[in-house]
Amino acid sequence: MLSQTKVLVASTAVLYAKFLVTTTIQGSKRFVTGTRPPEDQLLKGVPATKTAFGFNAGGASSAAATEADLRWQRIVQNDLENIPLGLLVAWSAVHSGGSELVNIAAIGTFTAARVYHTYAFAKGLQPHRSRAWVLGTAGVLALALNIRRTSALVLHPPRALSMSTKAPRILCTDPIHPSGVDFLRNRGYVVDTTSLSPAELVDAIPAYDGLIVRSGTQVNREVLDAAEKLRVIGRAGTGVDNIDVVAATKKGILVMNTPFGNNVSAAEFTMGLLTSFNHSVISGVHGKTVGIVGLGRVGSEVSKRCQAFGMNVLGYDPLVSDAAAKACDIEPVTLEDLCARSDFITLHCPFTPTTKHLLNADRLQRCKDGVHIVNTSRHQLMDKDALLEALESGKVSGVALDMKPSSHPLYAHAKVSTTPHIGANTTEAQERISTKLASQLHHALTRSKFDNVLNAPNLDLLSQSARPPYYVLAEKLGSLHAQLLGPQQRIVKITIVAQGKDDKRQLLQAACRGLLRHLVESEVICDDVVSVLHARGINLVEHTQEDVDSSSSYSNLVQVTCHLDDGTSRALTGTVLMKSQLRLVQYDALRLDALLSGCMVFFSNDDRPGVLAAVTQVLASHAINIGAFGLGRTKDKDALGVLNLDDVPSEPALAALANVSELSNVRLVNLLDMPLEPRPSSSHSKLDSNQPKTKPRSVNFGSGPCKKHPDYALHKLPSRALGRSHRSALGKSILLEAIEKTKQLLALPPGYVCGIVPASDTGAFEMAMWNLLGPKPVDVVHWDAFGKGWLHDATSQLNLADVRDISAPYGYLPALSQVNKDHDVCFTWNGTTSGVRVPNADWIADDRTGLVLNDATSAAFAMDMPWDKIDVCTFSWQKVLGGEGGHGMLILSPRALDRLATFHPENRPMPKIFRLKDKHNEIMMDIFQGSTINTPSMLCVEDYVNALDWAAAQGGVPGLVRKSAANFKVLDEFVAKNNHWVEFLANDPTTRSTTSVCLVLKDTTKDQLKRMTQLLEQHDVAVDIGSYKDAPAGLRIWCGATVETADLEALVPWLEWAHAQVHAE
User: Fold this and answer.
1) What is the mean pLDDT of residues 840-848?
2) What is the pLDDT of residues 337-361, one digit of tens each?
3) Which three-class secondary structure string do you get for 546-559?
4) How many alpha carbons lie under 13 Å from residue 1005 in its C-beta half-sphere?
5) Required co-factor (predicted)?
């Protein structure tokens, strides 16, 4: 009864306090707590505060009212909504022992008094003295009398509420679809939507964590300098010309866009402009020729629609081959030919230093008389003065522009139609863009995911760590190529050479990503950028270290070469010094030493005195400081200069450099470097600070194919048999070497034979089943997916009449005692998909009459094999030794050979790759001497021999078993420590696999498990550790001997972190 009284008092106090606040506010009779403004008003720029809360200034000036409203909005967001919280805190106090009724009532009144006084101050109003006294004094007195009790009042709020963490604030200064605003507000963000002048934006930006813009807001250096806590800028759309990306990068502010939401909308709008020219001037578009500059996402959509209108389509794109263009019914041409032959020209390319003034006076003069031009991309692509002159002269009959008009007289010309960059403004497109951008900002601010980030190529943002230096080097060399590419040059092939580096494929990906950052309409977010270039017809080639200039003094080099359609090429070579300094050390054949970082200017010059003085004089006159200078020169007095500048030079500064008589080919290049440690935010969760600092050196914990051994290097493999026949003496000798080393390492008894057969372990085991099963009943003992597959083979493929199914569910071992010694037995020693193994072979009778067929693919070399109990053993190279897939090993005992020689299955189809006997039913023993049924990969054979040599160096099978046991111990201890949320799938400790370790997470859904594995992969911690598709949801972590114990020790804290992260989300 007393508790109910306390709650009643508290409730009454809260309601009365709220009533006092509401009725005392002067100048307003309407009060709606927390109501959002209608989105149509937001989009029109109506101040959010007045619309939301219904207050006016009570006679104050408009400026003061606006400021007061803004302050009031912050108060309401942070304080007023805590008035109901007073009741909840009071309830907590009651249940924790509480204090007197006056203290319970004071919780509500004290909170209300705080809001009341603050609002009155913000509005410049005179508080009602009696009400203020009631609210303030009652609350303070009660709390003071019970000061020892106040801790109880703050220690027991409901978990879902937080009274200390302020919600991150996001400012949206351009209209976006309300779906994105709703998305953010529903996740606790304070979102202010209003149009601000440049000065107002500078004043407002210090309070915000995120900024959303379209093309209307200019985010310049002044704005960024004022941004004290800004962490991310989101562009609702593609182009970021209105954002000073370089300045944002220097401050550690992420810039992201949403490039894939409006392709079709932009293409449709382009067609509307193209067909809208005055029909008294043109006779329609059918049969006319259109030249499309830029065949990316939008340009390719435009080409389809132009073809549907019956137009002839010409295309130019530096990253689309002739073959790829022709495949789309586009005639590939040079930029000059496109201008000369087109009735219509439409531009769909990004703005870069290379594409600036793409349509200049010279190209406009090449155009047909009366040409029509459409530009829905960027105004910088046109020389506006030259285009205006062409309009006046009649060379150009009409121009349609989708961009914000400036004061330039071009936009006022009678033959120019303009729209304010609304080409992608369909409702559907804007909703997609808005929601996508809101999601990206949310993930970036919570550090859970980073999509479409444009300015952090050097960082792994999830782990807040630098990417591997040679990956960054390759990316920058690709970016440098793109920015040095001439306006008429097209790339036909890209080659990469990595001396001293084995991961050329990753380096090629990085180089392609750097290239595409600058040569397509937007940031490339596709993981497989190589496929993007392949689709555009670009040939990509990886070379070996032998192709690097042997005269170089550097031991580790990455060289990226772009081959152009005119037969020329450019080769850029770089290295890494002191672990993190990226250097350009060769430009074609020219040796130099230049820092690959930040803002750079490249130029050619005559190698004579005074050139550098002229350059420094120009830069000094524009207040630009030189950070570093690199120079390469030839014996012919030709030189290449590279400047690293502290600031991006303005257009006048670049023009002044270009006018220096000694210089030519002046090119501006920006190689962005996000600071390694972006400033922390108050909104970071505790989980971020708990993120482990140490990562495994290798991310490969998958259960097949498995990790290569620690000493592995692809370039160390012999190439002696490449291009040679496997039937040659050399080929057979290497195959026999692999067989003999396998027998020696596994300690096979005399009389046992071993051969290399097709189709990995699956092929080897089915080969044994097809050749040996039939004379006796068969017991198929299985407890995972692959064992169950052997049962299906026996009953449905071989159609054996007498087959017993001895099975157990995932996590358990069947009753092995049921096996009949007079039956043939098929079983897996170690269930790769279940993590359950047989503890020993005691259940196999010594006096058996049946054959024992053992699938040991994840057990061979990792677990002791009692060969006297095994008649057939199969495994693949890709498991314990980390070899390559596609090849299997078949071991037969003398008993199995005897069965093979005497049993001839009738009416049983025998595929060629299963045949162990010739047409005379004689065993083809040469299979066990180095011959093979089909053609093996000799490179894979060399790889396997290399793994066998490594295994022997570890002490053979006993040494490998010890390594696996040590690895398993790490996970065993991890599970014991965290058994409240994780456990082994294997129920019996004696049956737990020491290679394919399967874990079940008790409180985690499939979606959360998927998110965990995504997090670990995104942070470059672990890949391929999800459970097998048919197994219970969980994790499967490979602990074979090729995995380093230290890597597993580094992995387990990440497992704990990822589990906590997904549950927090």
Assistant:
1) 96
2) 999 999 999 999 888 777 889 999 9
3) HHCCCCCCCCCEEE
4) 6
5) pyridoxal 5'-phosphate
- Reply yes or no on whether the pLDDT at 25 is more than 60: no
Q: Percent helix, strand and coil across the chain, each rounded to 5?
A: 40, 20, 40
pLDDT tens for 615-630 read 999 999 999 999 999 9
Topology of domain 468-588, per CATH? 60s Ribosomal Protein L30; Chain: A; (3.30.1330)
Tokens 């009696």: give the residue. 130
Superfamily of domain 957-1063: Aspartate Aminotransferase, domain 1 (3.90.1150.10)
Q: What are the tokens at 38? A: 């209608």
Alpha carbon of 410 to those of 363, 383, 387: distances in Å?
Answer: 18, 10, 8
Q: Mean per-residue pLDDT for 713-736?
A: 92
Q: Count other C-beta atoms under 10 Å from residue 147's C-beta.
A: 8
The verdict on domain 262-300+308-314+332-357+367-423 having CATH code 3.40.50.720 is: yes
Q: How far from each other are the two terminal CA atoms of the chain, in whole angstroms?
A: 40
d(CA 37, CA 662): 62
| Burial category of 839 from C-beta neighbours within 10 Å (exposed 0-12, middle 13-18, buried 19 and up) | middle
What torsion do the CA atoms of 882, 883, 888, 894 make, to the nearest 10 degrees?
-70
Bridging pattern class, strands 590-595 and 581-587: antiparallel
Q: Beta strand pairing status for 996-1001 and 289-293?
A: unpaired
Per the prediction, the chain carries an average pLDDT of 82
> Per-residue pLDDT for 385 more than 60?
yes
Whether 169-260+429-446 shares its CATH topology with 262-300+308-314+332-357+367-423 is answered: yes
The arrangement of secondary structure in 723-940, i.e. its CATH architecture, is 3-Layer(aba) Sandwich (3.40)
Cα(1024)–Cα(1037) distance, integer angstroms: 8
- Write the pLDDT tens digit of every residue in 669-691: 999 888 865 444 444 444 455 88
Report, as an integer, the average pLDDT of 373-397.
94
Q: How far apart are CA 531 and CA 509, in angstroms?
A: 9
For residue 143, is pLDDT > 60? no
The DSSP code for 717 is S
Q: For strands 824-828 and 852-855, give the pairing.
A: parallel
* Topology adopted by domain 169-260+429-446: Rossmann fold (3.40.50)
DSSP for 852-891, written as a single string:
EEEE-TTTTTTS---GGG-SEEEEETTSTT---SSEEEEE
State residue 548's pLDDT score. Answer: 53
Q: What percent of the chain has pLDDT over 70?
A: 80
Answer for the pair 1054, 704: CB distance below 8 angstroms, yes or no: no
Q: What is the pLDDT of residue 555?
A: 72
Average pLDDT over residues 562-585: 90
Ramachandran assignment for 366, one of left (phi > 0), alpha (psi -120 to 50 degrees), beta (any other)? alpha
Local structure of residue 1028 (DSSP, 8 states): P
How many CB atoms are located within 10 Å of the residue 540 CB?
16
Give yes or no for residue 1064 having a pLDDT over 70. yes
Q: How confident is the model at residue 53 (pLDDT cuts 50, 70, 90)?
A: very low
Structure tokens at 448: 């859970």
Quote the CA–CA distance of 280 and 910 in Å, as a whole number.
78
Taking the C-alpha atoms of residue 482 and residue 487, their distance in angstroms, rounded to an integer, is 11
Q: What is the distance between the alpha carbons of residues 350 and 380, in angstroms, rounded to a whole number?
A: 10
Q: Domain map of the chain by residue range?
A: 4-40+58-146, 169-260+429-446, 262-300+308-314+332-357+367-423, 468-588, 597-673, 723-940, 957-1063
Q: How far is CA 88 from the centre of its chain?
A: 42
Report the percentage of the chain scoring pLDDT > 90.
59
Which CATH superfamily, name and number, covers 597-673? ACT domain (3.30.70.260)
Of 41-50, 242-251, 774-783, where does mean pLDDT reach its minimum? 41-50
- In contact, 596 and 473? CB cutoff 8 Å: yes
